[in-house]
Write a structure and sequence with these properties.
With 324 residues, this protein is α/β, with parallel strands linked by helices. The chain has 3 domains: 80 residues, Arc Repressor Mutant, subunit A (Orthogonal Bundle), CATH 1.10.10.10; 118 residues, D-Maltodextrin-Binding Protein, domain 2, CATH 3.40.190; 105 residues, D-Maltodextrin-Binding Protein, domain 2, CATH 3.40.190. It is built from 12 helices and 11 strands. Strands 3, 4, 5, 6, 7, 8, 9, 10 and 11 form a 9-stranded mixed sheet that branches. Strand 7, helix 9 and strand 8 form a beta-alpha-beta unit. Helix 2 packs across helix 4, helix 2 crosses helix 5 and helix 3 crosses helix 4. The longest helix is centred in the N-terminal third of the chain and has 28 residues. The relative contact order is 0.14.
């Protein structure tokens, strides 16, 4: 143990450069020294020299040369996995310095599932942007259905907002539930059904329905099927199937169709599209919406400010949607 510090300083600490790590990452990304050199605006010999210096400092081979280019060895893969964390922490440190110098600026990268971008997320961004007009907000369409959280692991987003489809069992991910997102049977406010105070789900079976496609194990299709089954009913025949929130809301607004929408989508769009939740209880039809983060990862203060706005907006969804 006594020799660990001088060995680090002499063999690694003074010879391992961030520039060389960046070059290695670019070579692996492009699979070719020539293409990496072109991308980095460097000469190919300079790229080769940087890789050689890294290999000499570490005492291992980092790249395997093949007829198709280069591939990372297991040593390079291990180094780049840790290097990703190093570069991310440096990036977050710079963002924090920028925020301290100018608390009104910076940028936020948010991963968000499509259904939340149709209602909940735009309202959060609007409120946040009014308070911090110089902050740039990047929104990336993501998915939490498979719970792989690829965008978080690759550091392409700061936080991810999505639905929890099953208990989370991931040692690298932190989760904070924002609210329970209930489902509602929805019609146009101009529909004859919108004027009824008492409706049974069975009354609506012959109406033209817009439903979710059944070919996705993580889609709400199964939950909706269970809600009908709980009342001794089969799913009605679909007139349209689509995951698209825009298609569903536009068609329902026309007055002919019925659909099932989440509360987070219905509330912000009810007045705009003339939508109304019908007085029908869908038993146990709800999924939690949560914030997902990488554990042990520092995010910038401006990202924390955005998370505060997410929590504040979630409180407004605590009240049940108006059905009458």
């Amino acid at each position: 143990m006594a020799r660990a510090t001088p060995d680090w300083e002499s063999r690694i600490g003074r010879r391992l450069r961030l520039r060389d790590l960046h070059i290695l990452s670019t070579v692996v990304q492009w699979g070719s020294m020539a293409q990496a050199a072109s991308h980095l605006a460097m000469s190919q010999p300079a790229v080769s020299e940087a890789i050689t210096n890294l290999e000499a400092a570490l005492g291992v081979r980092l790249l395997d040369r093949t007829t198709h280019g280069v591939e990372p060895t297991l040593y390079a893969s291990a180094l780049l996995k840790r290097g990703l964390v190093v570069f991310d922490e440096l990036r977050q440190g710079i963002k924090e310095i920028e925020f301290l110098a100018d608390p009104t600026g910076g940028e936020v990268r948010i991963g968000c599932i499509e259904s939340l971008t149709a209602g909940f997320m735009p309202e959060v961004i609007d409120q946040f942007s009014r308070k911090y007009p110089r902050v740039l907000v990047h929104v990336v369409n993501t998915s939490t259905a498979t719970q792989e959280f690829r965008e978080l692991r690759e550091r392409t987003v700061d936080v991810l907002v999505g639905r929890l489809h099953k208990p989370l069992a991931d040692d690298e991910i932190d989760m904070e539930v924002l609210f329970q997102d209930d489902y509602f049977v929805v019609a146009s406010s101009r529909s004859p059904w919108a004027r009824r105070r008492k409706i049974a789900l069975a009354d609506l079976l012959d109406e033209p329905w817009i439903l979710f496609p059944p070919n996705n194990a993580f889609a709400p299709f199964m939950l909706i099927a269970q809600a009908f089954s709980a009342q001794g009913l089969e799913l009605p025949r679909a007139a349209v199937t689509s995951f698209s929130a825009a298609i569903r809301m536009h068609l329902v607004a026309g007055g002919r169709f019925l659909t099932i929408l989440r509360g987070s989508m219905l509330r912000p769009n009810a007045e705009r599209f003339g939508l109304k939740a019908l007085p029908i209880a869908l038993a146990a039809l709800s999924l939690p919406v949560a914030i997902f983060k990488l554990k042990h990862r520092t995010v910038s203060p401006v990202v924390e400010k955005f998370v505060e706005h997410l929590r504040a907006a979630a409180k407004s969804l605590a009240a049940p949607a108006q059905r009458t």
